[in-house]
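Checklist before submission:
- one chain only
- standard amino acids only
- sequence pasted in full

Submission:
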Amino acid sequence: MKSLVRWSASLGLMGSVLLGQLLPGMNRAIALPAQDIMKKLESVLVFTITNTEGTPLIASVTNNNEEASIASFFMSQRDAQQFVQKIEQQNPDLAGNTQVVPVSLAKVYELEQANADNPERVEFAFIPVQQQVQFAAEELQQEGQEIPQSNGMPLFNGVPLFYATVGPEQGYLTIEQNGEQLIPIFFNREQLESMLTRVREQQPDLAPSIDVRVSNLEKVIEELENNNDPAVTKIVLVPSTETLEYLQSRPQPEPAQP
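Returned file contents:
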């Protein structure tokens, strides 16, 4: 499974859009309860590779004379399927014995927290969509940051996330849903741009002051863990279009019979 490590290393909400002044320099406080964090993560699917019995495929990696076990989680089902094809081509004995399994990010987070103090724990690696990495690199380059390259591809630390700020004070762009003001953070740059198109149409005076910002999944989770500012509770992670389409394509359970 060394090829797993090499490969991974190379690799809409509705409602009124509002200008929010949320999160303007948050004060550190106690962490949000783990259950609240998991609620924010449960709508996000990641995809891992298992054998036919449901046991995840684990890569063993040696770094600085220390061995680590790594389970990979893909942000894209298509990327996971393509990887299965690669490993089955390289290892014909695995053909027909592997499968792509969707897992809620909340469940992955729960497992990671439960094993945080275990010295023999399996490390989790999240594999971003390369197109979104490219978008993130382009945004950061526009801000004047230098982005390192590897084999002609930009390197980005973690899974990129996208959000928007607007106005002279660069307040976070929010939406209103069911009377609640929320801060949408997107896994797909295209979904954010779709929302911004509506903003420009509805409030053209704000258009010149709109800026796209880039963060990553790890930083957002860290913020949820370490910040009890009420504004943090307004963050909502918007699943990718691919994930939403995947969920819609799954057969719905039959209603329970009375």
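Reviewer check: The CA atoms of residues 49 and 57 lie 6 Å apart.
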